[in-house]
Amino acid sequence: MPPSLSVDDTAAPAAVVMRARYSLLALFTLMGMLFSSWLTRLPSLRVDLGIGSAELGALLIFGAVGALAAVLVTGTVVTRFGSRAVMLVATAGNLVGFGLISAAAAASDVRLFVVGALINGMCGAGTNIPINLNAAVIEQHVGRAILPHFHAAFSIGAALGTLAGAAFSAAHVSAAVHITVISLVVAVARFLLIPAASALQPPPLRHSASDDGAPRPRGGVALRTALAAWAEPRTVLIGLVVLAGSLSEGSAGNWLSIAVVDGFDEREAVGSLAYGTFIVSMTVFRILGARVIDRYGRVTVLRTSGIASLAGLMLFAFAPSLPLAWAGIVFWGFGAALGVPISIAAASDEPTRAAARVSVVTSFSSMAQLAAPPVLGLLVETIGGRYALGSIAIALLLSILLAGQVAPLRRESADDAGVGPADEDEVPRTSPPAADDPAASRR
Q1: Residue 267: which region, alpha, beta or left (left: phi > 0; alpha: psi -120 to 50)?
Q2: Looking only at Cα atoms, what is the longest distance across the chain?
Q3: Which of 116, 123, 165, 212 is most buried, by the most CB atoms less than 10 A from its CB?
Q4: For the chain, what is the radius of gyration of the CA atoms?
Q5: Is the pLDDT of residue 109 over 90?
Q6: How does residue 432 score in pLDDT terms, banded at 50, 70 and 90?
Q7: CA distances (Å), 367 to each of 40, 67, 68, 441, in order?
Q8: What residues pair up with 353 in beta bridges, in sequence order?
Q9: Distance (Å, whole) CA 389 – CA 278
Q10: How far apart are alpha carbons 59 and 63 in whole angstroms?
């Protein structure tokens, strides 16, 4: 395997940076394909398991439980062992998890589905944090905002996954066979790409001196840094922005296809294409988003995105016809495109603390996954899928109000920040600028 370089290695060869960048783009694409492809078959899985929408929502909560449990420790594990090892273990775990879900669909066994969803949730967190950290490190090496491009790659993969799901469904291929094929292909490709994609790493946490002058072990520093991130108001508030973005994007993945199928009496393939439209809309704006962020700044872009997403969601929920609802899906996708990548970039402003902070903000994504499936499942059963999705508007309003928290940080010296010797030895603290400065987001 190639050696790993940290973001402190400013003279990293351009070839290494380029190889890492494009390998990671491919990994994001594969993750999007894996994520969306099986979600397009939720209507089939609902039938295969012999359950209703409320029961399906309750089962999906196990994936969120696994993700939340894993995300609370993944930042520490990545800081301690590096992103490469974590991603390799997560890839193997996903292969097992999706194998169990396929078996559950074939055998109509809810218990297998629960175990598979739990494993996939844990491994999803084990992938999401390190790939976003690696993307932030590459962005810092490149020197300008490119993180949305990685999320655009995820969206491209998700669009390909929805097309594959629609094709499998139209060909009457069972969900079990479909999920097995996709998970095997993606796993092999991930194993091949991870070494190059993880060639650039965040800078390691340094040892800090104990009271007797002896160095503290690195693992202790990693744990203390991970716990300290939960006490940072800015990090927690950015986490709430991530919660809103994840709730919007994740709920579309879980329920948009079903909402179209049930709300407009359409076939599953049409529902898959509706979700594909949402993904394509996100992809287009993520590709354009890096330049937009560089020009207008994180805060302005995040607020505008929230307004667009809110308008599109309301149009989808209350449109009297499918064509108008489809237009709402497009605006909803545009608005949902940049919330999460902007938040990840904001949490990664200080590279040495990025693992802990990204772990915290990502945990809010898991919280959204934990709460949304059962709540929306019940609402789908009682008021229908479109109106149920309309309830996400509350979270979108919250993200608009908190947009100022993603303003880029300015470094200040340890003395100015008033930190003690132990903190100085680990990393200088940072403080947000007085106002959103678009130029500050250009790295």
Answers
A1: beta
A2: 72
A3: 165
A4: 21
A5: yes
A6: very low
A7: 22, 9, 7, 28
A8: none
A9: 14
A10: 8
